[in-house]
Queue: 3 jobs
Job 1
Amino acid sequence: MTLIADKQSDPGAGAGVPPSGRPAFGPGELAGKVMRQCREVTALKEQFFSENAEKIAACCQAMARAFDTGGKLFSMGNGGSSCDAIHLSVEFMHPIIEKRPPLPTIALTTDMAILTAIGNDQDFSMIYAQQLKMLGKPGDMALGVSTSGKSANINRALQAAREIGMMTIGYAGRDGGRMPGVCDFCFVVPSFSIPRIQETHETLLHVMWDLVHVIRGEEDVI
């Protein structure tokens, strides 16, 4: 019996030839795309931080005062922005620099039972507002992350926080949506690219975490 080789199972068959329908890239073309994205995010961050440096400093001074007087920070977001909210929380609660003290920060995105109960029994747009009404108090802080600035559950929560007497902080993108209207400090990344907005938000949360500690008298070591 003669065995016929299956070309599809042969790892060496058609090496270097892309499957039908896929583009073929020339030498250095993909590396060029990598560098284009690096230039885009670098230029965007330079623009954003140049335009917002003074407001970031003012926000961090207000946050430091709130922590000093016993305030807590609550963070929230949806999808990738919920991961940024959790990231922010762990930076404050478990500082990457050992000598810096932890500061009370709670991510409202992590309790699946609470989130699904409120979303099922009331409305998904209330999943964070209801938590803040139970947990927040005057002098606390609420920080919402939304790449569009239009997330109903974030904006409702920020409005609820204002009514409680909390400081409200927003991370947004595009034109900011409705978020600037419910924030004491709103930081809008001027881009329609969700990855570029998120990359800038991630740098912003690191900058703000560091600056709050420096304002509170910790060593400026980063």
Job 2
Amino acid sequence: MTNPSQSNPHTPTTPNAPHSPASPSPAQPLQAERGRATGDLPLKEHILMVNDVSRGEKYLEAMKAKIKPGDIVLEVGTGAGLLACLAAKLGAKHVYTVEQSPELFRVACKTVEQNGLADKVTLINANSRELKDSGVIKQPIDVFVTETIGTQGLDEGILNIFADVKPLLAPNARIIPETVQFKHCLVNMSGIREQLEVMNPILGVDLSSLNAELQSNNHFWMHPIEMWRELSTTAGTPIFDLLDFESQESIQTMQITRDNVCDGLLNWSEFSLSHSNTIETRYRHFGNSWANSIYFMDRCFVTRAQTCTATMRVNDDRLGWVLNWTIKTPE
């Protein structure tokens, strides 16, 4: 039977709605929703990303497997120009690379020039929506690559980018990444959550009204989450094709594996770049450039006799998802 009253969840929240400490009716599942992409990637975050060498190595491995001498390559999300330069050095006949941020576009122009690749790389300061009608790209694209992967997976607009470039691709074009799968598990955040919310009266004063001002129950934590904090098995959605994406609601079940206090659901995405080469958006060790995405619920105690069922669907804007979950106790 469903026992949401045990977990005392928050009411549904979005980035534009107030955070409410009130409990829902027993029939209402826990819900978390991710909003729209937030805009250009700040320079400091981009420096963190390019310094994540393992992240770059994953893409280099995929590009070596897919780029052949003489290929025409398109990249969306130039950043500082790392992948565009690598594509040119791997033998591409020409590389078109698109960056919407004027600041990063200027940086990328300097990077291409400094690496002696100006004759092989065309930089375009535009949004991917403008590519088809711009007339800049006149040849079918043999290889398309993008690293517009956000911590939430979709929040940098990767699905919309694929839709924008699809008309420009040659038949049987090779793409990086190819697919995405969304994953989640229940977690204990004791000692961490107390830094993010008012959990108890402070010196005898109830300050929980501060929590009501929070814009979302979603938090990003840039530290590893130790194995003891994972309270359930990991659930994975079906694998979605990025080029021919079809949204569908999926239902996953997680088995609770230890008795402990539960704070919410940890969510991450896994992208397939090429055969046996994947990259995930979970922060597992110091030095990587991801963050752990955690949806909080009212703290509760869970036991190994329980299961958690999660229902997920991608939003119509393709930038996030709605995720509902309920903790169940066997009858």
Job 3
Amino acid sequence: MSSRGSESSGRESAGGGDRAPPGRDREPPERPRFARVAPGSHSSAGTVLLLLALLAVPWSVQVFSGRDATFLFAWGLLNTNPPSVTTLSEFLFVYTRGLPEYILAWPLSVVLYGVALASASSGWLRGREDPRVTGGLLVVAAVAQMQLAWGFAVQPTRTAWPVGSVALVAVAWWCYWPAVRASVDPEA
């Protein structure tokens, strides 16, 4: 009986049983939920969700004389004094008369973001996407938001924080930079 037990244990240690060879007993690490887009691939559901989450981030925060603030989102703006919400369509079709030109950077950045979201969604659902285009659209949207924040910041008693620009560039860098870098330098 003792020889039979040693045969069985000998096979297990030699790799013939249920045990994996040394160094291979670990499973591969899980991909992050908001995965980077690999070179030659397309956006995942997590990437699309991350892009949708940008709707909850204020793209620009304007503080007036340190007492009240306006939060510009992709969908509209939220004023704190008096508390009110204005949708982007209301802003464009009701309140745009006589406004400075730099404010038009806001709807422009929303259009660019929408096209990037459509590109990522197409990549996720149909497998057809050029990650360089999607990432580039996000970066250009961020630049447009910077122009908006700069336009507000140069006015007396106003401060503007380009939160959306930082968020858009961060998403473009995290999700799309590896694919862009690989297309420029395939050996990197």
